[in-house]
Design a protein that fits this description.
globular; 5 helices; mainly alpha
Length: 57
Amino acid sequence: MLDNIKEITHKDIMTILKTIDQEVLKAAISGEKFQEYFFKNCQVKEIAKYLKGVLRK
């Protein structure tokens, strides 16, 4: 699994977010505090929009 993540993470952030296991990503960003702090401070609208979509799935 870590080899897979290493292979994925040598790319731009949007490619990483779209390529990584979506259930793992959703679990990582599902915390109430993460969402509160991240979305309040996120400066890249494309990333915020994508992660909100992941959370709705």
